[in-house]
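Collaborator request, handled under Task 6.
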Amino acid sequence: MDNPEFWLNILRLGNLLLLLGLGVFLMLTLEKNKQQKITIDKLAKSLEEMDEQAKLIVRTDMELNKAQEELDKKVIGLYALQRLSRTMSTSLEEMQIFKKISPSYLEELGFEKAAGFLWNDKENDFIIQLNIGYLEDEIGKIRTAVNLEKDLYLDLIKEEKAVSSTSIQQYSGLNKESIIHFFKVNSFVISPILPKEGSRGFLFVGKEDTGEVPTEGDEELITVLANQIGQAIENARLFEKSWKTQLELEKKVEERTRELTNVLEEVQKISNRKTDFISSVSHELRTPLTSIKGYAAILIAEKLGALPPAVKERLEKINHHSDELVHMVNDLLDIARIEAGRATMKIELQDLQSIIATVSDLIMIQCKNKNIELVTNIEADMPLIPTDRGQIERVFINLLGNAVKFTPQNGKITINAELKDGVVQVGISDTGIGIPEEAISKLFTEFYRIDNAINQQVKGTGLGLSLVKHIIEAHKGNIWVESTLGKGSTFFFTLPID
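Structure tokens returned to the collaborator:
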């Protein structure tokens, strides 16, 4: 135990163990430091990322605030444009449109000054239409400056695109500094005014604030405003054009009406002269006709002595043609009286069925001679109608006589009568040769006769249908015809119930 070497070995072993322990501790410490460094690096990296994220959030927040401000500004501007559009649309005078743009509207759009120009072809320069924020001498100098560079502004109008103090570099013509100097602003927007027809122009708006620059939203708002002005100007010009056209049309209508009135008066005078002439001549013809017919009757009766058969035959022809001439003269007199309003209609309530029955009996002999079937269809409960019986019987006799005349053997004639739309409508149909379409419009004209084989064989005056038309119109009715060539015709006429 007292051996020194033993203790020395123990000491060495202890030192060795101590060194081993210190080595292990050192290694553990180094490992721990390494882990701590890794953790610190991670923390530093995280802090850097958080810092970047914080900066991004701040930038995003600033951009969002800016975007929100821009959006709020645009919304306010859109509301202002909406109200302004309604205000401008109420004006139909071109000179009043720019006056609707007040400083308050301009302020809501975010600008302080404005000027509007329209090109004048006669004076070959721009005319000021709008002035907000400028004194008279200032706006005068601005107009002079604009017209000195009018070609550049005309080119801008042709481009049909707005420019601002931030985007004018893309447009090589106009000079930004020159515009800022003359218009006394630090930022601006210029937008063309483009009505579809007529002179064009441009709208200038600006602000003096050096801290703000026009955005794309500002350009869009001013473009919309310029378009609204252009539309309002176009509407005003269209209205003015329509108004002038209407005045010219009214003037032409008035002149034409005056001319037509004079022509109608002249026609009426001629018609009156014709009526008076026919009436006078007809009266004058009656006296010699009466004498001719009287002497012919005396001679035919052989009261002045016996006549050879040939002479008697010719006298009977004179008597027959005298009757035809008397009939024509009577028709002419009746037409003249009705046209002149001198014919007296004895209007009384009449039974239409009784009138048709009477006329049918008169016409029945002619129908039997050609074996024509005559059919009558009268609506039940037909009321009494106010008419001049004698005149309406003449209408039926004329129409039925024509139907028999133009209906071949074994044909059919139908008389229909019905209530329709507050009137009595009568239709007389036949299965005859029909009427050419081109003749229908002339059918009721005096002395007009259709050129066909039957009319060439059977003589007539061409007064019957004209007389019928006058009688129906004197009763406040209407008359017309429908026909198919080769299949027959139907003559319609109406008589009011009241």
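The cover message to the collaborator said: "DSSP finds 13 helices and twelve strands in the chain. The chain has a mean pLDDT of 80. Please let us know whether this matches your experimental observations."
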